[in-house]
Amino acid sequence: MENAIGIVFPQTRHRLCTWHVAKDATQPLAGLYTNPKFSKYFNKCFYGCLSESEFEDTWDHMIKTFKLENHSWLQKLYSLRRKWCSAFNLDYFSANIRFIQRVESTNNIFHQISTKTMSLTSFVQHYEQKTAYMRLAELEEDFCCKNGMPHLKAKSGIFKQSASEYTIKIFSFFEKELLGYFVVRLDEVCNVGAKYVFEAIEEGHERVYKIHFDSITFNISCSSKLFETKGLLCRYALKVLDFKNITSIPSQYILKRWTKGTKKGIVVNNDLCESYNKKARSAQSLRLSELMHEANNVVSIASLSYS
């Protein structure tokens, strides 16, 4: 599968399903998996690290604490760490959807419309009904997005802008970050010209996030990597914008795919198109060669008869 994905989807990153990895771990780690302290380290290695160095430190501490230096299954798991540890994939957009979530949502649809004794004809009928229902629900959602506004818990510029730009569902996700930045404490670490570095910490939490900001280009990045993975600015970046008296989200941080106008126009991936065009030209040449061969056969057969 990995080789096929690399050929067909060269710009994607193949990852292992963490649910299946965790499930497979129950047998080789049978004596440890029920240990709360070990589970805390193990789960942090999967989801709780924000950098590769943090993962390495956590993994090494877990291995040394539980004396697992010679554990063959963990050694193999470590060799595949880039395929399952979130810390190695924070620069890749995933909409924060894990493989198991996508599979379960798809399976749930089919479970709703099928039974073990259902005929193929009945299944197709139920499938078409479900498809029609889902399309209608999407149309209704589009109508609500275009003709309504969510209730705003604050009247600031960014609240109004995001509510008018984002779809209702995306705004409900983003609103958590908007409300969250009120409990974020911000400290300016350094400033060189137009470039600033801040450190942010949320009340009641220990983790410190680092934010880089350019006051000329309005480029901003945070160690939380929420924008890189989900396409939405995090509460720490929003806190910096508020601190610098910026009352709207910079245009480069509003992804069209999350907006009410996402269906307008065509989104083009130039690299992918070029790759596709090369393959299309190659396929066209192959088809032309096959058709010429078939045409030659037809002409040869026709030449044998005058009728």
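(ticket continues) Second input and output from the same batch:
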Amino acid sequence: MKRPLILTMSFVFALAASAQTPADFVSTRDMERINWMEFKEVVPARIQTVLLPTGTVEAHGVINNGADVMAPVAIAG
């Protein structure tokens, strides 16, 4: 009875240890598509060079950084 439990717990701990970090979850490098928390995790960890777009800069909280330009860009096509 103890052996299956030990094997299961070992598997769970191994799986948790190999879990991806938040920086691995970001699906894009486009700054306007991610929020500041994702950007903070990715830039020092995985990306060395950043191209900073200019334009409206304001705090958006958990909304993506490019919330002001997403609709016009989508409409433009």
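Agent notes: The two ends are 61 Å apart (CA to CA). DSSP finds four helices and no strands in the chain. Closing as not reproducible unless the customer responds.
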